Amino acid sequence: MLTPMNQMVAEAIAAGQAVPAFTCYDFTTALAVVAEAENQGRAVILNVAPKTAGNTAGLRLISALRTLGEQAAVPVAVQLDHASDAQLIARAVQAGATAVLADGSAGTLEENIAFVQQVRSLIGPQVVLEAELGALPGNEDKAFEQSASQLTDPAQVARFVQDSGAQLLAVAIGNVHGRYKGEPKIHWDVLEAIHAESTVPLVLHGASGIAPADLSRSISFGVGKVNLNTELRTATLAALAGQVEARRADGQNVLGLMGDWEQAVTEVSSATFNSLRAK
């Protein structure tokens, strides 16, 4: 069932859990993610990257994910992730996205607030609005580490949340997109200070590579949504690489290969759900 993202996140936090948001480049991944969510009886968020949404096929994927969410037996939200193009956001919402991350984090504090306000006026009150404060470096194709200067400034949090109208706040506390250089260093003191200043749930991006115990610990500091992408990509590509020749020999068994893909997604999503419980 389609459910407002802020509602499902608030309910998860109250239950000592966080909601995973999985980036879906295709419908096969989304099917496996939702099936495991139903198996676990947990809410889930289907993320679409801006590069995916920036073409007709991507907008049709958003529409398909919305239909999947409507038919699911658990709460589902469909989110356009990390979008800094207001017109792309408008097209994604028209296609069926129920939530967006209006990402103005590359600008100044004032520019970031103004961009989030602009997006709110564009999408109306029904679409859930996430925003990001602090610089979250990286992408899913390279290894990165974060410097202290890029972390979210707790002193800016209260004003940003109030003035921007963001309903969820993505934070930079040592997490990065993509692969980490060495072990991730989560700045727990910064997260604790952010939590004390924020009136909305917090979001942890770049969760692939962060230890399950740390993901679980973050829930006690107000994190109610956790984004994963790289871990899914790594698992699915590894599964396909190991099975393509076997499936070709097995009568060009494309359905079997899709099953291998779904199994890899299921294993990652199952482990993720299990990690997103406060200890």
Automatic annotation (TrEMBL):
Record protein name field: Tagatose-bisphosphate aldolase
Domain of life: Bacteria
Pfam families associated with the record: F_bP_aldolase
SUPFAM superfamilies associated with the record: Aldolase
Signal peptide segment: none
Reported cofactor(s): Zn(2+)
Annotated source species: Glutamicibacter nicotianae (Arthrobacter nicotianae)
